[in-house]
Design brief:
The chain has helices at 24-47, 54-66, 70-88, 91-114, 122-141, 150-161, 165-180, 186-206; strands at residues 9-10, 18-19. By secondary structure, the protein is an all-alpha fold. It has a two-stranded antiparallel sheet with strand order 1-2.
């Protein structure tokens, strides 16, 4: 699905529309927007001491436990997943995802210099942060990229076996949150679960086979 939008295809009969491939400018802009959404979502979650699903959640949890930069952990955790992406999703997808992850790491370092979140209610952080992360995943996926980590696996499963990426992500996120229960207080895990649901719901609703021409 992530590659389908790059090929010129004709829409189903009767619609009279033609799907044109994304230009380089389209891809650059789409990936930048996706990265900005994702980074903003992570910062909202971090401000409330929450985690979420996917590699962002693992990086946040690791940051709370070790004190290391969430951006650095995000990039390091992604390394084996990028190898998987290269082998099964192709060099183009992996290169775009690597660029996106490097940009997220940079933004997570730079944004706090211009935006300081003094207080955010956990519910607002959970819903807003999860939704922003989900929008980031969608924007990247529509331009043949991913946030890396577990998202690469879910996109591959959808492309190869037509298994909805959102549903797969929910299962993975459930495991991450269960592990988090052994490390952080249950209330924070509860709000974190809400953020994971918000993120996965965006992907489940809008990123599935047949939703767009060429998908």
């Amino acid at each position: 699905m992530t590659q389908g939008v790059m090929r010129s295809q004709t829409a189903p009969a009767g619609r009279g529309l033609e799907v044109k491939p994304h230009s380089l400018l389209d891809d650059v802009y789409g990936i930048c927007v996706g990265v900005l959404f994702a980074a903003t979502g992570v910062l909202l979650l971090q401000a409330a001491g929450l985690i979420t699903g996917g590699v962002a959640g693992i990086a946040l949890l690791g940051s709370y436990m070790t004190g290391q930069s969430v951006g650095l952990l995000f990039l390091l955790i992604n390394v084996p997943f990028f190898l998987f992406g290269y082998l099964f999703m192709g060099a183009r997808f992996t290169a775009k995802s690597l660029v996106g992850s490097a940009m997220i790491m940079a933004l997570l370092k730079l944004i706090p210099n211009g935006l300081v979140i003094g207080h955010v209610d956990p519910m607002v952080a959970a819903l807003g942060g999860g939704t922003f992360c989900g929008m980031g995943i969608l924007a990247l996926a529509r331009h043949g990229a991913g946030l890396g980590g577990t998202g690469i696996v879910t996109l591959w499963l959808q492309k190869r076996y037509a298994i909805n990426a959102g549903r797969t992500q929910v299962m993975i996120d459930s495991v991450i949150l269960m592990v988090a229960l052994t490390m952080v207080e249950p209330e924070r895990v509860g709000w974190s679960a809400l953020s994971a649901v918000a993120m996965s719901s965006m992907v489940m609703a809008w990123h599935r086979a047949g939703r767009y021409f060429g998908s």
